[in-house]
């Protein structure tokens, strides 16, 4: 028998642990398949049906998607979500980078970074409880402004789109520290030689940042930006906690609209269509950072 | 160099001022969570009046079943990540050490479970849980938290095991060890730091979960703590704000403390995609 003919024994030699290997991987594959992939397929199917939980889903093709885009509430929700994406890139990622640069090689930097890290591990609802209190009418913020003679304050959580903006700022309060931490790790991993060389050449401040730091931080920035976009697309907890998407539907995000259509209005088909839409957008954004992530050499 | 010195002072000053601004909400939370319901008013938030923090926390634990929720959530946040870590490690072991054929495809299949939003699985889970009697049970919550923790766990463990020379495995085989024994006695102990890192990250994530708890549970004994806090805020947020704030403090304390003590783990995990 020639070497090229596959026979059981040769196969066995190449893959001597096939059975135990399948046994080791089976629990993970089964759990993920049953609890994540099966529901995923079912939601995709439901998005093409009319269904309210009673009886059987009725096939209606793409009607839910048409209905979705005809709904001004949904369009408003898309716009709010885009505001979230832009806002969380601008504020928490921006300030996070700023804090990382300011604390870089600074004596006591670890301590100066601490105040920004405290809010990070709070739940979205926890952040919501604190900020709802601060932003309530005549609440802590209004009192502080009144002390400076500003009496005519807006209704922070009522006026749209101001309510979305202040919720983004509350999220920024939570998120700056972690971005600062990530950028700090990035800065610490920059090799010394090019930095020293640039300093010898007299590069400082902005020039040092533009010519050395920024290019070297690029891979990490891609990850941070990607994570931030994906997280902001899924914004739910803090909005549900602070405004419930209101007043009316003024501060709804896509995740909230999906939740309301599904679990409040029992529009299972429509809710599923919104979930599919959100997923497609999230996947497109994920490609940004997954490419980076899967090829990265970071390890725990 | 005087210039450099000035720059340092300037940087420290900017950070200190900004840091103080960042601490203001924490200050407000502490001061107002400590006010007894009798002296609390929404119109005077900046100055402390009295110290009734422990009374408020006790009251918060009583309201909205926060005490029962806390116990259940602790169970979820310990059991689910523990199982997920082992399942993820087993998957990584199969792919890397046992060289499962098409290992990368298997890996992508498991890891892919984490890239889409939870909204995509909520309704079918709710539906299936209602039909199978898993709705509003602790077992149901543990199962779902375990499943969503597995992809990240498998991701990290595959990376970690890739760093172990295959000769370690071959040597153990020559010593006559079974694959199970090699996994449990050789690979798992070597990976303890990675296992702990995943565990901490996932425990924090589960403790802070709101959405799954909102959809898959309703009774005080099953509902996770953050979902209970949200319920408490909508029910008592008007009349008993200081109690709600004390509840918020109580719910937040475990993860904040855990995070501050284990920052390094978080930072590494975060760079890997847990946000």
Automatic annotation (TrEMBL), chain A:
It is a multi-pass membrane protein. The chain crosses the membrane at residues 21-42, 82-104, 116-134, 165-187, 208-233, 268-290. InterPro entries: ABC_transporter_permease (IPR051393), MetI-like (IPR000515), MetI-like_sf (IPR035906). The keyword Transmembrane applies. Pfam families: BPD_transp_1 (PF00528). It is found in: Cell membrane. The keyword Cell membrane applies. One of its GO terms (cellular component) is plasma membrane. Keywords: Cell membrane, Membrane, Transmembrane, Transmembrane helix, Transport. Its main location: membrane. GO terms for biological process: transmembrane transport. SUPFAM superfamilies: MetI-like (SSF161098). Residues 78-289 form the ABC transmembrane type-1 domain. Belongs to the binding-protein-dependent transport system permease family. This is ABC transporter permease subunit. It comes from Glycomyces albidus. The lineage of its organism: Bacteria, Bacillati, Actinomycetota, Actinomycetes, Glycomycetales.
From TrEMBL, chain B:
Residues 70-262 form the ABC transmembrane type-1 domain. InterPro entries: MetI-like (IPR000515), MetI-like_sf (IPR035906). The lineage of its organism: Bacteria, Bacillati, Actinomycetota, Actinomycetes, Glycomycetales. Belongs to the binding-protein-dependent transport system permease family. Keywords: Cell membrane, Membrane, Transmembrane, Transmembrane helix, Transport. The keyword Cell membrane applies. It is found in: Cell membrane. The chain crosses the membrane at residues 74-97, 104-126, 138-157, 186-207, 241-261. It is a multi-pass membrane protein. The keyword GTP-binding does not apply. GO terms for cellular component: plasma membrane. PROSITE patterns: ABC_TM1. This is ABC transporter permease subunit. GO terms for biological process: transmembrane transport. It comes from the Bacteria. It comes from Glycomyces albidus. Pfam families: BPD_transp_1.
